[in-house]
Specification:
Elements lengths: L2 H4 L3 H13 L14 E2 L1 H13 L3 H14 L7 E5 L2 E8 H18 L2 H20 L10 E3 L2 E3 L4 H20 L5 H16 L4
Antiparallel strand pairs: 1-2, 2-3, 3-4, 4-5
Helix pairs in contact: 3-4, 3-5, 4-5, 5-6, 5-7, 6-7, 7-8
Length: 198
């Protein structure tokens, strides 16, 4: 495939950003479609698109929305429709992805104030994710009503690996030490490279 042909021109990028912005609610939530559902992982992806298209206020609203709906254990409900939770399971890659989005936002804007503001949410999210690391190093995929889905997903674990990198960068930028995160990241990297087993 011709890489140049695959790239969106500036106008196409702007059109895409406008389409995403049209799905953002006053709360900051970004829906899949008009009156459709939202989930934390795709919500963060959409916020990253708004960041690179010079819509930092909309991106900040999106990340603040996640902080507002975060549950006490640090996780997020897997799906919402019309402002209500429609799938209450908690997915580890969803929770971890907040760190990826925020670090992406920071690298684009150098807005350390938002990192500091949302640090408590990042900390709770990553602590919860790390608590679901399995003995062999992979991260359990999900938890529902206290029951852990022990089977890890390669895609989910790979996403979490990247998020743990971003979480450590956020912690370092804010002057925090989180050795448990570093240890979890190393164990996860090892199992992803060599032997992802249930």
């Amino acid at each position: 495939m011709n890489v140049e042909a695959a790239r969106l021109c500036a106008r196409e990028q702007q059109t895409t950003a406008e389409w995403i912005a049209s799905h953002q609610q006053p709360s900051g939530e970004i829906l899949w479609s008009i009156n459709g559902k939202s989930d934390p992982w795709d919500h963060v992806h959409a916020a990253m698109a708004l960041t690179v298209q010079n819509e930092p206020e909309r991106a900040r609203a999106a990340y603040r929305f996640l902080a507002q709906i975060q549950e006490a254990n640090g996780a997020f409900a897997a799906e919402r429709v019309g402002g209500f939770v429609t799938r209450g399971s908690h997915e580890t890659n969803h929770a971890a992805y907040l760190a990826t989005g925020l670090w992406h936002y920071y690298t684009a804007t150098e807005d350390v104030d938002l990192l500091a503001e949302l640090w408590p949410s990042v900390e709770r999210a990553i602590d919860w994710v790390v608590s679901l690391q399995l003995p062999h190093g992979a991260i359990a995929w999900a938890q529902k009503k206290g029951k852990v889905w022990n089977a890890p997903l390669i895609t989910g674990s790979s996403s979490i690996h990247g998020s743990l990198v971003c979480a450590q960068l956020i912690a370092a930028r804010l002057g925090h030490e989180r050795p448990a995160w570093r240890s979890a990241w190393r164990k996860l990297a090892r199992v992803l490279r060599h032997d992802l087993k249930v």
